[in-house]
Design a protein that fits this description.
Blueprint lengths: L2 H31 L2 E2 L8 E2 L3 H7 L2 H34 L4 H13 L2 H11 L6 H8 L14 H26 L3 H9 L4 H12 L1 H16 L3 H7 L10 H10 L4 H24 L10
Helix pairs in contact: 1-13, 2-13, 3-7, 3-10, 4-7, 5-7, 5-11, 7-10, 7-11, 8-9, 10-13, 12-13
């Protein structure tokens, strides 16, 4: 093979090595270990076949975690993506001060999730929290945002929405700024209102941005763990336990690495199936010219 043809592969080699050792190999190793007993009862891993998977499928706690993860994911993705699109369309119309609005909404993205969770945890405090303070000022009683199992998952979801909406907004705004002005002006002359121009012109032209944001939002939803660890640790009554935190619990609290590996394998396979399905369905309808 000619030296020039090898040069592109040499450029991507460092990235490939990094991905192999820190992504592909750990995922493959977790899948392999999911077929073993690997906990404090076994000094050496012992082959167990599908035992770990059967244990999970027969566990009510596992299905509660799956339900929590699905509810969190749908709520987070729908709210953050729609809110980001709304903010992007509004800022796109601003003639002056647009940079200030963009900086204000994007700022939470730069805050580490651990710090964001701490901020919101103090805001949620029953007696001294900022939210309950204003509720009492308005004549309402305090709410146990993180202690009430009926609203604890909603409270945790708000942290993710607050943190990532600004990032998605910037991506939407980049797409909207590339939509040709002559198309919008022509539609306006033809009598199309703002909603029609958005749905019939802007959204189809920025479908590549929307598709990318959707994939990123799915990944962000399924990997949520920092706010759970800091704010609720899965409580109350397992009502906020999500799949990644459940993996952490089994692997590093209960020291059942075989079960944690099985959970990791299920998570990776589920994510691959979701993303593959999106690429095979919505991915074929994406417009990439803008």
């Amino acid at each position: 093979m000619h030296a020039k043809s090898l040069r592109p592969y040499l450029y991507i080699l460092p990235a490939f090595v990094f991905l192999f050792f820190f992504t592909y190999y750990p995922a493959g190793f977790a899948f392999y270990r999911s077929f073993f007993h690997w906990n404090t009862s076994f000094i050496q891993p012992e082959f167990a076949g599908l035992y770990n998977y059967r244990q999970l499928l027969q566990s009510r706690r596992f299905w509660q975690v799956v339900t929590n993860t699905v509810v969190y994911s749908f709520s987070f993705i729908a709210a953050s993506v729609l809110l980001a699109l709304f903010l992007a369309t509004q800022i796109d119309r601003v003639k002056r001060g647009g940079s200030l609005y963009k900086a204000a909404f994007f700022y939470p993205t730069m805050i580490p999730m651990a710090a964001a969770a701490m901020i919101w945890m103090f805001m949620y405090l029953p007696d001294y929290g900022l939210i309950n303070y204003y509720l009492r000022r308005l004549g309402f009683s305090s709410v146990g945002w993180l202690n009430d199992r009926s609203i604890a998952l909603f409270s945790v979801t708000m942290v993710g929405i607050w943190k990532y909406t600004g990032y998605y907004m910037i991506l939407f705004l980049a797409g909207l700024r590339n939509v040709p002005d002559e198309l919008i002006d022509a539609a306006h002359i033809e009598g199309a209102n703002g909603r029609q121009r958005l749905l019939k012109i802007s959204l189809p032209l920025i479908s590549s941005h929307l598709f990318f944001i959707l994939i990123i939002a799915i990944i962000n939803a399924l990997e949520a763990v920092d706010q759970i660890y800091i704010m609720t640790q899965g409580g109350p009554s397992n009502s906020t336990n999500l799949i990644v935190y459940f993996i952490y619990q089994n692997g590093f609290r209960f020291w059942d690495m075989g079960l944690a590996s099985a959970l990791t394998a299920l998570l990776v396979v589920s994510l691959l199936l979701i993303v593959s399905t999106l690429f095979l369905t919505l991915g074929r309808k994406v417009y990439y010219e803008v």
